[in-house]
Design a protein that fits this description.
The protein contains eleven helices and nine strands. The chain has two domains: about 80 residues, 2-Layer Sandwich (Phosphorylase Kinase, domain 1), CATH 3.30.200.20; about 220 residues, Aminoglycoside phosphotransferase (APH), C-terminal lobe (Aminoglycoside 3'-phosphotransferase, Chain: A, domain 2), CATH 3.90.1200.10. The two termini are about 25 Å apart. The protein is globular, with a radius of gyration of 21 Å. The chain is an alpha+beta fold. Helix content is about 50%, strand content about 15%.
Amino acid sequence: MASQNKINLIKIKNHLQNKNFKIGGFLNFKSDASEKIFKLCKTANQSLLVLSFLNKPSDYQKYIKATDILISQNVNTPKIIDQSNLYKFVIMDYFPIANASKYFQKPQIKKILPLAVRALTNLQKPKKKFSGVQVKSQNNLLKDALNGIETFIDHYDHKIQIGFYLNKLVKVSLKKSTEKYRKFKPTLTHGDFFLDNLIYYNQKVYVIDHQDTHYNHPLLDISSLIFDARRSYSTKVEDKLLKLYARRMKLNLKQLRSDIHMISLLRNLRILGNWVQLYNAGKPKYLKVFRKNTWAQIFKHVEYLRLWDLREIFMEIYNKTS
């Protein structure tokens, strides 16, 4: 994990003053981001958000490019007011309402989720092919899933004991079950499209944390929204979002149901490994709080896909690590 370097507030303040910003002071702004640094900037008549890439300068240009892409695709995202290539920070709109996860299980979620689907379909209907944007290998989802479950099994090896054997069985089954899913036409993908990376303000949804926008499987983002590793929606809500996505993308609903369960299975297996990595990085709450829901999504997928061999293997792993 990147070291938490401090933003040079004096240099930023001087930069803003040279741009005729009347600075009233900087306030701490809490964020869940692991490598980016945020500061809330109070000017004479508005609040702006300073986003520094000091810990990861390579993401600075990626963020600016991704922002331009989202805007060109009619996807709402906080507007960049100013930027500094020298100090690797951007100054952007600040919305006083926290991210959309605050509305989970509240009435507003009925508006937020459909708006998120619309934003996603706008992103996936590019007017042109964007150069300089990474295109992921068609084996990336399977590879990441296998790495994720292996990381999880290794972490609990003292409890599972036969983890090496179980991991081999998972690899054989997943490779066989996902063969047809490793051939697809890549589309623009956020990569982590779920409530925590959305802001709901003035009845609009704004997409954030988008510096890793790339080309990947077309169902990756919609699967992460509907089958969130951190929280679960009702079957009714899932079905409504699937129908909306299928209609806007002109997809066969029956085939979409099957495909999205498989893509989401791979994603949630990867995320199991992510929880372990965060645990090892000194952030144990993710593994502790979200592990159960991630497994619930995984079992939902294998049941729907009738992957009985994987269900038995996963049940063995789950029972020994719960």
